[in-house]
């Protein structure tokens, strides 16, 4: 009798833990993420890792401004600190993985990524209907040593993020859901984030150049 109750309890706990999770297909096969950290545009590959953030408010704007512009051709306007402390977005956690780690995947060498073998997976605490706001974050993982966003942030790793796009999670693992590529993820680049002093020096340089041109 005790064994039966234990089995029933485990089944109930498993059912409750998976109830209400939305299913996402974290996949873009090519031409979506480029590594600019060397000064040249390199296809995102195993040297890069990717994760994504979501918000149940489909019109939410990220703390780094990802809701208004892509960073495919420039330096990110935001920092790791802003991303990790974003009040509107949270990193996607795999509801079926041990200790629900952040869903992280390496690039495929063609500027794409493919999490969970191309199968959808449940994101912890996410809605399983309607639309959510999503954006992808990428970083150079330093030869596979920076495998979480937190590790990348602590190391001051290069950073890149897509613009925010709308995504419709599935209700179950059998639901037909779009890949991130099909849902319209914009291409983006991974590049070092300058220190505030760098922005200040750049501003002074531009000002000096304008003054010089006026004198001439």
Brief characterization of the structure:
This protein has 216 residues and is an alpha+beta fold. The chain is built from five helices and 13 strands.
List the helices and strands and how they pair.
Layout: H1 2-18, E1 22-24, E2 27-28, E3 33-35, E4 42-43, E5 48-55, H2 80-84, E6 90-91, E7 105-106, E8 113-114, E9 121-123, E10 132-140, H3 149-154, E11 160-161, E12 165-167, H4 180-183, E13 188-190, H5 196-215
Parallel strand pairs: 3-13
Antiparallel strand pairs: 1-9, 2-8, 3-4, 5-6, 5-7, 5-10, 10-11, 10-12
Task: Please characterize this protein's 3D structure.
The chain is of the alpha+beta class. It has one domain (20-211). The chain is 24% helix and 20% strand. It has 5 helices and 13 strands. The strands form 4 sheets. Strands 5, 6, 7, 10, 11 and 12 form a 6-stranded antiparallel β-sheet that branches. A hairpin with a 6-residue loop joins strand 3 and strand 4. It is globular, with a radius of gyration of 20 Å.
The total number of structural domains is 1
Distance between the termini: 94 Å
Q: Which structural class do the helices and strands define?
A: alpha+beta
Structural shape:
globular
User: What's the alpha carbon Rg, rounded to whole Å?
Assistant: 20 Å
The helix content, as a percent range, equals: 10-25%
Mean pLDDT: 82
Number of strands: 13
Uncertain segments: 1-18, 196-216
Hey, roughly how much beta strand do the residues contain?
15-25%
Please provide the ordered H/E string of secondary-structure elements.
HEEEEEHEEEEEHEEHEH
| Continuous helix count | 5
Largest sheet: 6 strands, antiparallel
